């Protein structure tokens, strides 16, 4: 897909981390970008810094997502690009025994459901809205739009305590090809990036010793990924018209260990 000021994009989770780097990369090509994010303060700041518009959005809510798309389209026109970076997780063992008391505790089901809703359902919610809008467009060079989703190395090598996060990200990987097939007749491509360990704002809160140790786990290069590398891959998936229905690992060849 060509990238210029006639093209509009939506980036969920675009106020920080992988999403923010993708916003910057799109804006560097003069693409009109709408940042979807839950945090109003960081969202407005990110929009101001990048020359984008901010649409407050909770991907857990139909009404919130619908309102965000309506605002984005009123300002920028119908998007031809959707990049889904919104997500999150928790770390809770499936079942564990308290070392002091011996009490057995299980993963709270509501916390498991929340992670699936935030990642898998939230991504799908945005995909369906974007797909419906893109289907109203006339094709350019045979395609109406392109979507890039975000999974995780945890989708295939989840560590201890990541049952919910692994399931949620595996769901994104699992639905990628199916959705690409669903939308193929409409000229809409769908791909997913499966990042390894990246230096994101969430990771920034970790001690430097931990980040150094995690970086050494990566075969090559032995470091954490940086958000600009994710953005570069997202841009290639947008540009390359033959990339469709694919999940691309972006992880320096790491295969996560149990802990």
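Q: What amino acid sequence fits the structure above?
A:
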């Amino acid at each position: 897909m060509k990238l210029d000021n006639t093209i509009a994009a939506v980036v969920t989770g675009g106020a920080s981390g992988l999403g923010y780097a993708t916003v910057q990369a799109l804006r560097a090509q003069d693409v009109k970008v709408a940042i979807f994010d839950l945090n109003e303060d960081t969202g407005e700041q990110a929009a101001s810094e990048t020359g984008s518009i901010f649409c407050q959005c909770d991907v857990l809510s139909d009404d919130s997502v619908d309102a965000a798309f309506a605002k984005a389209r009123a300002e920028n026109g119908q998007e031809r690009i959707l990049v889904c970076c919104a997500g999150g997780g928790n770390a809770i063992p499936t079942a564990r025994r308290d070392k002091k008391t011996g009490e057995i505790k299980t993963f709270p089901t509501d916390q498991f459901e929340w992670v699936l809703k935030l990642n898998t359902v939230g991504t799908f919610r945005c995909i369906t809205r974007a797909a419906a809008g893109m289907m109203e467009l006339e094709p350019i060079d045979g395609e109406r739009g392109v979507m890039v989703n975000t999974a995780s190395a945890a989708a295939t090598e989840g560590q201890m305590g990541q049952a919910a996060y692994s399931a949620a990200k595996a769901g994104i990987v699992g639905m990628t090809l199916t959705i690409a097939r669903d939308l193929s007749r409409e000229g809409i491509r769908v791909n997913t990036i499966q990042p390894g360990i990246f230096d994101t704002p969430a990771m920034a809160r970790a001690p430097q010793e931990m980040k150094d140790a995690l970086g050494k786990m990566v075969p090559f290069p032995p470091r954490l990924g940086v958000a600009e590398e994710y953005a570069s891959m997202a841009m290639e998936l947008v540009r390359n018209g033959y990339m469709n229905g694919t999940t691309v690992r972006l992880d320096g060849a790491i295969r996560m260990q149990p802990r």
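Q: And what stands out in the fold?
A: The longest helix spans residues 109-134.
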